[in-house]
Amino acid sequence: MWRFRKSFSPLPGVRLTLSPSGISTSVGLGPLRVTSGPRGQHLTANIPGAGLSYRHPLTGQRVDPRPTPERLTEPFQLSPPSAPTRELTMEQIESAGSAVLTTPGIAEFRRLLDQARIEHAEIARALDHAIKLECAATAKYRAWRNGWLLRRILKKRYEELALTSTEARDRKTELEEQEELARLSTQIDVPISLKSTFSRFSDTFAQLARSTRLWDTVSHRSINQFAERTLAARAVERKSVKFALGRCEVIRSDWLVPHLENANGGDIYLYPLFVVYFAGEQNFALLEYKDLNVSFGVTRFHEEEEVPTDSEIVGRTWARTNKDGSPDRRFKENYEIPVVQYARLTLQSATGLNEEYMLSNVQAVEAFAKEWKSLVECITRGA
User: Fold this and answer.
1) Looking at the predicted structure, is the pLDDT value of residue 71 above 50?
2) Which stretches are tagged as biased composition: Basic and acidic residues (predicted)?
């Protein structure tokens, strides 16, 4: 028999629904649900078995005045300097804090997730304490049970230890059940056409994730080509990252989604209706696809490390060059550098998302870009 704390109330779960007007968030139990979306907030009551329902508006219609940002597809040129000038400062490429990144259209879902996180954290602390008490009580009871003298001489005390062990075990079981119920279950309702499109998108991402090299571009600066004797226009600092299909721990859902690791900020998860920027259980943000600017392009990179096997060498240059591209003979240890073709991927939003990636497999990124476009068009249509 469970003995739930009076302050505990199991979370009923949340449902996200896509329509031509945008994403709606609804929460409730049984026949009653409260829904928040582009048309405001309303209460819906359904009569089980009768096929009848009643809808009552709770707030006025909301209108989002922000225009949908354009999606950039122009290619970019990107190259590091042959010999970096230390006194020049690199500009960081990073997103704003998670507290300001969430877009207004999905803020209600973000609030519900935060409520679930706080409730879950409280129960998790109590569960951790209960596990320690249960271990201590059980160990003491077993020591008396396995002995011969004390349980026969001090029978009343032995019975008390048995009762304490049982209660501690029941308390731990109770809190384990509460911990499970405190996780906000998320149901994402999408049309069949969008589910199919997202499946293709995820498959293409899985191919992209198998690129030989994936880098997060964490900082950059412009190059003085004359002073630094190079044909490169931009210097970058990059760090290796991994892409894979996975789940974000703040979203309790069956969906397995594209996960982009971030070297200097929160990881990015691409769900069917929204994007999660996850820096931690207490630091995350949600963004709608319509609020994102995503650009794909091909870049020529002066590669001084090992050239990835799935990349193409498209030219040669020198560590120190003249304006015409010939080697500068004034430098005795001048050496030749391969120019490699890479793909560039950027994600930005008006709320402050700013991430840039470099990938070795250009063909995989081009296929991903095609499926990305199809996904965004499908979400925009609401079908």
Assistant:
1) no
2) 63-73
pTM: 0.74
In a domain, 320, yes or no: yes
Query: Do residues 164 and 250 share a domain?
Result: no
Local confidence band at 117 (pLDDT 50, 70, 90 cut-offs)? confident
Q: What share of the chain is helix, strand, coil (3-state, %, to 5)?
A: 30, 30, 35
Q: Say if residue 217's pLDDT is above 80.
A: yes
Would you say residue 271 lies in a domain?
A: yes
> What does the DSSP 8-state code read for residue 268?
E
What burial letters (b/e) apply to 60-86, b meaning 16+ CB within 10 Å? eeeeeeeeeeeeeeeebebbbbbeeee
Q: How many domains does the chain have?
A: 3
Q: Which domain holds residue 19?
A: 14-57
CA torsion sign for 305, 307, 308, 309 is: negative
Report if residue 81 sits inside a domain: no
Residues 212 and 357 in one domain: yes
Q: Which helix (H) or strand (E) holds 343?
A: strand 336-349
351 shares a domain with 226: yes
Query: pLDDT confidence of 124, banded at 50, 70, 90?
Result: confident
The three-state secondary structure class of 176 is helix
Give the per-residue pLDDT at 85: 45
Residue with tokens 């507290």: 99
Angle at 124 between CA 118 and CA 129, to 5 degrees: 135
Q: Are residues 175 and 264 both part of a single domain?
A: no
Q: Could you tell me if residue 124 is inside a domain?
A: yes
Alpha helices in the chain (DSSP H): 98-101, 107-146, 150-153, 155-181, 192-209, 225-228, 362-381
